[in-house]
Amino acid sequence: MNRQFEPKDPDFKQRVTRSFDEQAVMKTLNARLVAVEPGEIQIEIPYQPSLTQQDGFIHAGISSTIMDSACGYAAFTLMPSEARVLTIEFKINLLAPAAGERFYAHGRVRKPGRSVFVSEGEFYAHADGEDKLVATMVGTLMAVYSR
Amino acid sequence: MNRQFEPKDPDFKQRVTRSFDEQAVMKTLNARLVAVEPGEIQIEIPYQPSLTQQDGFIHAGISSTIMDSACGYAAFTLMPSEARVLTIEFKINLLAPAAGERFYAHGRVRKPGRSVFVSEGEFYAHADGEDKLVATMVGTLMAVYSR
Amino acid sequence: MNRQFEPKDPDFKQRVTRSFDEQAVMKTLNARLVAVEPGEIQIEIPYQPSLTQQDGFIHAGISSTIMDSACGYAAFTLMPSEARVLTIEFKINLLAPAAGERFYAHGRVRKPGRSVFVSEGEFYAHADGEDKLVATMVGTLMAVYSR
Amino acid sequence: MNRQFEPKDPDFKQRVTRSFDEQAVMKTLNARLVAVEPGEIQIEIPYQPSLTQQDGFIHAGISSTIMDSACGYAAFTLMPSEARVLTIEFKINLLAPAAGERFYAHGRVRKPGRSVFVSEGEFYAHADGEDKLVATMVGTLMAVYSR
């Protein structure tokens, strides 16, 4: 996607970082926010045996957690400073087992709107020097304004 | 749903319980398997500040994790003993903030199949003696046979 | 679902019927609106060879068309008279081939909201005196107000 | 996507074209198959008042019908000659009203598999010399072998 997004709030990076730091679950999962660009977010987590399902792979719900935050914050970068972001719904497709040393979620805005945003997420497993796509997400986010 | 499901494996409860115990992430999230019936599963977690998003509610990805396990094991109860269960995809809708003292996920098989199963999940928040529906899931599961 | 929905517009039946009559595609598909209740809609179509895919079954997209209208109008019954209804997204699961003499879509509101509604749809094939569930839908609808 | 797909059946174009011609609904909708490449399909329809919803835009279900065929046949190009293709589920997001002179659906395989394929679809409206993305789809397809 070569379209450029214009953030409405010049301090979007600070705003996203602050909110991310308030997501206690990100700390619990040892997730790190590694990139914050207009309409685009990257979050990383290391492999952790404590987050696995019965076959030793990262549980699909944990992949969802990371991708949902990436998709949500991607939308949040484009919202005005007074908005909060809310996930309305998302769908994930699991393409391969989440096996690897560490994992990256990329979230990108596909369609910004006044109140409704659509973001897409990808979840990559990094192993033996290679990245492999293991899951994809499509999510609908909403800008919510306090009254 | 008044249709009765007939499990192919009489020991389905043991098989599900054993697999659940192997999901390390369930221990990490303090999730408990509270009901295992043919085509139906209930999993419970207490409220934990360590699992919250920026507003202090349980993160949607954590709700997904619990619902995905509930939907997957609901399908697993109906699979033959030599099958493994794999989530292909799921979609969740977030209806209300996940605020409460504890939370229940119900997973139910909507359509069993030879290889493809469709399950539906509901996520309830329990607060002040009342249960409130906070999220729903539809998921597609697959029975996988080792070759 | 035993919860009762309270329509905001006492003339919701007229409003839904008028809008349905304006959906030219419903006429093209020979679809009939057979029930309009608060939060609930039923639409019927006969089997038509002109609507089939390569195996002679009703094409999944046509089932979607009928279910989407059923889900959207189910939400529309609960909206105030000045609102328009817009589908934001939907997901369908195909459970069985859409084979039969005629087909019914039921749309029901799962969660009403100020602006965002979640509806669920079911698509039944009627053959040899029996109804068979062939597809399910979950959709997110929005109440849009002209400014 | 710079990955190259290798079709298993050298006659995949003929096989897809023949199956498309058997989808009576494509004729009914005046849809034309305009591109068949390994893992990629393009289908076009003109604007038709007979396919509209209450505001005069193409009904979301009709967009779904075209995208579903594009996604399904994209997967079908990569399947062996003895396989049939079946849609298990799909999700669409509606990004803008489907207003225009004609419409294109692009379907692309995101992940091929032995039995399960994931495809992505886009629906563009062409108006005043420009293409506008109006909807996206993610679908899961299955290769089915007669026994």
Radius of gyration of chain A in whole Å, from Cα?
15 Å
Strand content of chain A: 35-45%
The outline of chain A comes out as: elongated
Numbering strands along the chain, what is their spatial order in the largest sheet of chain A? 1-2-4-5-6-3
Order of helices and strands of chain A: HHEEHEEEE
Largest sheet of chain A: 6 strands, antiparallel
What can you see in these coordinates?
Four copies of one chain form a homotetramer. The first copy, chain A, is α+β, with helices and mostly antiparallel strands. In chain A, 22% of the residues lie in helices and 43% in strands. Chain A is built from three helices and six strands, in the order H-H-E-E-H-E-E-E-E. The first copy, chain A, has a six-stranded antiparallel sheet with strand order 1-2-4-5-6-3, covered by helices on one side. The longest helix of chain A is centred in the middle third of the chain and has 17 residues, at 60-76. The radius of gyration of chain A is 15 Å and the shape is elongated. The model of chain A has no long low-confidence stretch (mean pLDDT 96). Chains in contact: A-B, A-C, A-D, B-C, B-D, C-D. Chains A and B meet through helix 1, helix 2, helix 3 and strand 3 of A and helix 1, helix 2, helix 3 and strand 3 of B.
